[in-house]
Amino acid sequence: MLNTTGSGSRYTFSQGGSSSGEVGPTNFGLINHNLLRFAWVVNGSNNNIGIGGNNFAPTDSPRSRLHVFSGDVNIEQIGSGIIMKSPNGQCWRVTVSNTGTFVSTAITCP
After folding, report:
1. What are the domain boundaries of the chain?
2. 23 with 17: CB under 8 angstroms?
3. pLDDT per residue over 33-54, tens digit each?
4. Residue 26 contacts residue 44 (beta carbons within 8 Å)
5. pLDDT at res. 97
6. What is the C-alpha to C-alpha distance for residues 109 and 97, in angstroms, rounded to an integer?
7. I need a surface site. Which of 21, 55, 67, 79 has the fewest CB within 10 A?
8. Cβ atoms 50, 44 nearer than 8 A
9. Sign of the C-alpha dihedral, residues 20, 26, 27, 31?
10. Taking the model in full, what pTM does it have?
11. Per-residue pLDDT at 54
């Protein structure tokens, strides 16, 4: 368990066993006891990563490669965005314009 001095904040690394555990079987995570939720959790069977889990339920497991359970994703750096690959293998960066329009730009795949 990790304690930060002075504020009473507590975090616990948790490793799920073969059948149960706070983070679920075979999973690994960091629990924020101040909010009673996961800061992050890694699903041991498929390496999916979850951020901001809602509770300690073992069923609260990430269902995609990156799963944000609650809250927004903030991309602050101008020009940065989400990179996706189209069916033909071309990579695209999706950003937003000053008017809120989505802009897709072909890029070299990372």
Report:
1. 2-68, 74-110
2. no
3. 776 666 777 887 888 888 877 6
4. yes
5. 96
6. 22
7. 79
8. no
9. positive
10. 0.62
11. 64
Q: What is the pLDDT of residues 72-85, one digit of tens each?
A: 889 999 999 999 99
The pLDDT value given to residue 27: 72
Distance of CA 73 to the CA centre of its chain: 9
Q: Cα–Cα distance between 100 and 96 in angstroms, integer?
A: 6
Name the region of 24 (left: φ>0; alpha: ψ -120 to 50; beta: rest): left
Letter for the amino acid at 77? Q
Residues 2, 11: contact at Cβ < 8 Å? yes
Checking DSSP bridges between strand 49-51 and strand 2-3, what pairing results, if any? Answer: unpaired
For residue 78, the model assigns a pLDDT of: 92
Assess contact for 9 and 34: CB atoms under 8 A. yes
Residue among 77, 59, 70 nearest 23 (CA)? 59
Alpha helices (H) along 23-108: none
CA–CA separation, 13 vs 23, rounded Å?
10
Q: Which residue type does 64 have?
A: S
